[in-house]
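Hi F.,

I've been meaning to write this up properly since the lab meeting, where we talked about keeping a consistent format for the predictions we share between groups. The idea is simple: the sequence comes first, exactly as it goes in, then the structure tokens exactly as they come out, then a line or two of notes. No screenshots and no reformatting. I'm using this chain as the first example so we have something concrete to point to.
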Amino acid sequence: MAESDWTFKTARALRKALRAKKVSALELARDAIAQIEQHDAKINAICVRDFDRALKAARAQDRAIARRKAGPLAGIPITVKESYNVAGLPTTWGFVPQKNFIAAADALAVARAKAAGAVVIGKTNVPVGLADWQSYNDIYGVTGNPFDTGRTPGGSSGGSSAALAAGYGPLSLGSDIGGSLRSPAHFCGVYAHKPTYALVPSRGHTPPPLPPLPFDRDLAVVGPMARSAGDLADLLEVIAGPDELEAGRGYRLALPQARRAGLKGFRVLVLDTHPMMPVATSIRAAIDNLAAQLAKAGAKVRRESSLLPDLASAARLYMRLLMSFLAASFPPESYEAMKAQAAKLEPGDNSLAAERLRGVALGHRDWLMSDGQRAGLRAQWRAFFGEFDALICPIMPTPAYPHDHLPDQTQRRIVVDGKAYPYQDQLFWPGVATCPGLPSTAIPLGLAGGLPIGAQIVGPWLEDRTTLKLAELIEQAIGGFVAPDLNKL
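Output, unedited:
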């Protein structure tokens, strides 16, 4: 069975077709379901199917469209990361003891998407505790990359990126604290947006069995994923804004408009290297080509600046803050063991592994000192974005790599141009935007050796529309998503 004419269309194109009565919401839902039934036995992106309710919701959206009372996402199929609560469906985060936990209500972002007319087809697979760039667990199994199922689709929103790349609807909801929106987008050749910290409320994106309370988890965000930059912007408009349970907190969509309307005059710093680890030749080549294309289109492209914060010290700070937050939920025995390891560190050991251990053992006084350093980092970025509109840099140091499920991640390695490096050190590129809470849009740059390559566009605090606009302009200029040949899987 071949894909339909609608399978890989953007949400914007589908919305136009729905209003012109060229297709119905029911047909789109059935198309997404057929695509899943045809291909997902090999990919395993959809871990929880919600087909019956999806068809019912699609019929309701067709009626709303006919009455001209449709929302901005009316009739558009969407998938949702398993870590979001969806009423009546399991939320496990991959934890086997929680396999029977059923959510009582939708997460706020899911509720907003539904209110806008989106049709939820199902939930997408994740790693255990959302703590990996590979998406597998003992409840739902392993998710493969649609370009090569022997490789990772990324994590922790890997099921969502695989679903998008495989044509299971044009939109998905994901989350990000260590690149969990952006690394899957990079590995699967799709788009994702890590919003400015706290722009999108995360209520209901909650590990079970905790109650879905309003809670801004340090560094963590929830955000949109899509196969086009414009669709990212549209979904962000729907889900952003303060939680109604916390009047006066958060940010309404009084966000600044994009700084530029076209590529000409866009002030961009382009990086393809980092002091902590090399970047694969294929990724550097793709980013260098992008820089040349931007310059040709009239953008003001630079490759270095004294205003750029020290990336190495920022990466170490990010490791401490990240692990301090994550360690709060570690089992007591693991927490105590890592604290004991941290106590044995040499004072001069400034490796990323050492900083992660120090983060686990961080006391409140030291955390406040680190948080103060983060305030200083944010000030440096404000100065940087006084001269530049955006930073473009890699998301991860390599394309998608083969599955590696060694239980101890510290024993895993990634290979960059033939040389092995610690697996967990990949965190440094996502941390460029995560530590200071800046918006970052992941974009595809084509294929190398049959595998997708992406980059991230980092922008100023609350200027999400600038990074999204630049992503859209780049898509128009050099192209965007390229569909995999699913028949070869």
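Notes:
The CA atoms of residues 245 and 305 lie 43 Å apart.
The mean pLDDT is 96.

If this format works for you, I'll send the rest the same way.

G.
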